[in-house]
Design goal:
single chain; mainly beta; OB fold (Dihydrolipoamide Acetyltransferase, E2P); 5 domains; eight-stranded mixed beta sheet; seven-stranded mixed beta sheet; globular
């Protein structure tokens, strides 16, 4: 009888451990999925799919729905499957699913939440909070949303956090995709001495804090407190550590990737330096996935692992986000030929974020303008970060959604005005000669052959004097003499001769007053830019010509 009691106690203990396997998971991820266990007057008990149970209260403005219909709390029943979003450990939304018809759901009710790990045209692979990867497909009918506005699917990046909605249970085609805003972007990579790690207070204290800026470590402040959750990945020398053991590494150098979380910095990934630091700025020549190693252009071989902090397009990605032929800044740990990457910061940017995009940038003379079509003469296209001439003429199309900006008048013009005015003339006619009229020139941003934005000016710039640059806005301001100006940090210039990005070791000043500014496929004004925005631009020394917010 005594053995039986001990056995029952053991079974109960194990079931309790299972039920509370990852009690902080929803608060880290910002959402919870599972089944309702109990509904009380002001709170609800939800059991996650893995068996973990949470007792949750509601935000004062929480939105409650069942099958897409607004409901009251009393309408939720035990056993109902739900999805909820959390902020400050309180539910801000709760969606319930009560469908009785198997195989049928209200349009947009089935959803998946995860991080984009791979993009291959219409095929999107996401990683769920459980670690599993699932692949879905987009179509012409897929609606993409970001910051509450419709955006083209081409704004999507690897590393983006998304919420995918489906209209049928068994479909793999996405009906709507919500792309998380700027909170997924890496704000800083810090290096510092670990002074204190408090497991109870969920924070760490760093001393002698430096940030990775302009290809070097720049001193930020003597001491810094940063929120740190037990769920943040922690590694040393390629081996994963328990966050409970972090206190044992006080006094050691750590590298930390942080994001901006509701105005506060939040740790996302940490690695403890094991031996000696070496840094390299070079092209990744080749990758050996079997040994998890990469060879740089200088023939140096460096290994990488799941704990390596890898930043690509301003986002944290897993190790499979590293690509051969990419240009990178690598912080390595080790000695001699035994080097492992602690940080890999990939420089590469292009006009398109992935192979979903078909955006292009043209420059050329406006030879003919019809009511829906523009013919360019002696045109150039930006291809692989260089201007190339592809032919004598090119036809592009515009419509009522095309943004047309006259740089000389500093104003937008309508498609009707664009067609009616003398932006393109027959220079050999008496009408043109008597009025000294010439064809204007333009910078044109397109989606395929459809013009999204065109900026027109009387004279063509010398494209030979231009270069392509990327980086992050450190500061933007309106100068009394120079107009809208920004300081760019972590800048890189494209070198055609070396066919690689060359890191700059100082901030770069850029003028915006005569620039075409594009964000999420649309033209914006300079005052809509902000510090922290990542940019890809064509510039002529100080003066920007075309700027894409990435």
């Amino acid at each position: 009888m005594k053995k039986m009691i001990i056995l029952l106690c053991f079974i109960f203990l194990m079931s309790s451990i299972t039920s509370y396997g990852d009690i902080n998971g929803p608060y880290r991820d910002g959402f919870i999925e599972g089944y309702i266990k109990k509904v009380l007057e002001k709170e609800i008990h939800i059991e996650e799919y893995d068996g973990t149970t949470h007792q949750l209260s509601f935000d004062a403005k929480a939105v409650l729905t069942i099958d897409g219909t607004l409901v009251n709390m009393k309408d939720f029943k035990p056993g109902m499957e739900v999805y909820g979003e959390l902020k400050n450990r309180r539910l801000t939304t709760l969606e319930g699913y009560s469908t009785e018809m198997p195989g049928y759901i209200a349009p947009g009710s089935k959803l998946r939440v995860g991080v984009v790990r791979e993009i291959d045209r219409d095929q999107i692979t996401i990683q769920l909070s459980t670690g599993e990867k699932e692949t879905y497909f987009t179509s012409m009918a897929t609606v993409a949303m970001k910051r509450g506005a419709n955006v083209p699917l081409s704004v999507l990046y690897e590393g983006d956090r998304v919420k995918l909605y489906f209209d049928e249970v068994n479909t793999f085609f996405i009906s709507k995709m919500e792309i998380e805003g700027d909170s997924i972007a890496v704000k800083e990579i810090y290096r510092g001495k670990l002074k204190l790690a408090s497991y109870l207070d969920d924070q760490i204290v760093l001393e002698n804090v430096e940030a990775l800026r302009n290809g070097k470590w720049e001193t930020i402040q003597a001491s810094m407190k940063i929120p740190y959750s037990a769920d943040v990945p922690l590694y040393i020398g390629g081996q994963e550590l328990s966050s409970r053991n972090l206190k044992n590494y006080q006094g050691r150098t750590v590298y930390l990737a942080v994001k901006d979380f509701f105005g506060k910095e939040k740790a996302e990934k940490m690695i403890v330096k094991s031996q000696y630091e070496s840094t390299f700025s070079d092209k990744i020549k080749d990758i050996n996935w079997y040994t998890q190693g990469m060879e740089l252009g200088n023939n140096k071989n460096i290994s990488f692992h799941e704990g390596t902090i890898i930043v690509k397009n301003g986002r944290l990605v897993d190790m499979y986000g590293i690509n051969a032929k990419s240009d990178a800044y690598v912080v390595a740990d080790g000695r001699g030929d035994q080097l492992g990457a602690d940080v890999v910061y990939l420089y590469n940017e292009d006009i398109n974020n992935s192979n979903i995009g078909q955006h292009m940038i043209y420059a050329g003379r406006l030879d003919v303008i019809l009511q829906d079509k523009v013919t360019l003469k002696n045109y150039f296209m930006l291809d692989g970060n260089d201007w190339y001439s592809y032919g004598v003429q090119k036809e592009l199309y515009y419509d009522n959604d095309t943004a047309i900006y006259d740089l000389e008048a500093q104003k937008f013009v309508s498609p009707k005005e664009f067609y009616a005015k003398d932006y393109a003339v027959d220079e050999e006619t008496d009408y043109a000669k008597n009025r000294n009229l010439k064809d204007w020139h333009g910078y044109i941003y397109t989606d395929g052959d459809q013009i999204r934005t065109i900026v027109v000016q009387k004279n063509m710039d010398s494209l030979l004097n231009q270069r392509v640059t990327n980086g992050v806005i450190e500061r933007i301001y309106e100068d009394a003499l120079l107009g809208w100006t920004l300081n760019l940090r972590n800048g890189n210039d494209w070198s055609s001769r070396k066919a690689q990005w060359m890191a700059k070791n100082t901030a770069v000043q850029i003028g915006l007053d005569r620039a075409m500014l594009i964000k999420d496929g649309k033209m914006i004004q300079a005052d809509e830019l902000k510090a922290g925005d990542r940019l890809y631009m064509v510039r002529e020394d100080f003066e920007a010509k075309v700027v894409l917010v990435k």
